[in-house]
Design goal:
α2 runs antiparallel to α4. The strands form two sheets. The chain has a three-stranded mixed beta sheet with strand order 3-4-5, covered by helices on one side. It has a two-stranded antiparallel sheet with strand order 1-2. The protein is an alpha+beta fold. The protein has four helices and five strands. The model has no long low-confidence stretch (mean pLDDT about 80).
Length: about 280
């Protein structure tokens, strides 16, 4: 009985050991299955990594191709720019050449134009001269001015070249200014002091008005004949040269005065005096 009991105990222990071993084998199988699953997962990961690496490689190849295309396009652009620059240079050379040819061709034309203009100017000058000749005038003519002799007793008529002026008032001013300027030779004496200025001149009917500054009397020599010579050199010169004038009124700074030095009355317009003119055949 004890032997059987021991045998049962051993059988039970053996059974327990077998169960333990069976559990261990089951655990081992589970571990093996997990290991296989991990390996599968790792294999998938490696496969994905290989795929990614392959895609990256393809992207790099595409980028490399794009860079290569870009380099080719840059090279083509540079070549195009060089070609365009050559075209521009050729165009500039052609323009410069045409400009030189145009200048060379224009030289004879410029000469022709200059000759034509010179001819027109010459013709215009001739026409003006003919017109003046037909009109009966010239650029100047001789006026008769009266200056004093050396004794201040007579007026001597002197021919003097002055500008030919058809306008009577302009001619009046020219006559008076020439009289103030004095004679051109030493055969006569001036009658108007050198610092006298003509302020204005004008015509009204048959009267000529001559307006002097005050030096006409301030700087006049203190003798009766100097006063007479000054007054009638103006009166006779104006009436002799200005058509239609019969009398002359002398003013001093726009005011008629009685006399210059107290002897010859000039308050009213004066007439020509031939008795003061010397029959002198000189200038």
């Amino acid at each position: 009985q004890n032997t059987l009991s021991d045998s049962d105990n051993m059988t039970e222990e053996t059974t327990q050991d077998q169960i333990i071993q069976q559990n261990m084998l089951s655990d081992s199988d589970n571990m093996t299955e997990e290991t296989i699953q991990d390996q599968i997962i790792q294999q998938d990961t490696l496969s994905d990594s290989d795929n990614m690496t392959e895609e990256t490689t393809q992207d790099q190849i595409i980028q490399q191709n794009m860079l290569s295309d870009s380099d080719n396009m840059t090279e083509e652009t540079i070549q195009d720019q060089i070609i365009n620059q050559d075209i521009l240079n050729d165009s500039d050379n052609m323009v410069e050449k045409k400009s030189l040819e145009s200048k060379s061709d224009n030289k004879p034309n410029v000469r022709r134009v200059m000759v034509f203009i010179f001819g027109l100017m010459l013709i215009a000058g001739v026409i003006i001269l003919i017109f003046n000749f037909i009109k009966g005038g010239s650029s100047s003519h001789k006026a008769t001015l009266f200056f004093s002799d050396y004794t201040y007793s007579k007026l001597i008529p002197v021919k003097k070249e002055i500008k030919n002026e058809e306008n009577r008032e302009k001619k009046l001013k020219i006559i008076i200014n020439e009289l103030v300027n004095g004679p051109v030779s030493n055969k006569t004496l001036p009658t108007i002091p050198s610092n006298v200025r003509v302020l204005s001149t004008w015509l009204s009917d048959d009267v000529a008005y001559i307006n002097f500054n005050r030096y006409i009397y301030l700087n006049l020599p203190d003798n009766a004949m100097s006063e007479i010579m000054a007054v009638y050199s103006v009166v006779n010169s104006v009436i002799k040269n200005i058509k239609g004038v019969r009398r002359v009124q002398i003013l001093v700074e726009n005011v008629p005065i009685k006399t210059l030095k107290g002897l010859t009355r000039i308050i009213t317009p004066l007439l020509y005096r031939s008795d003061l003119v010397k029959n002198y055949k000189g200038d």
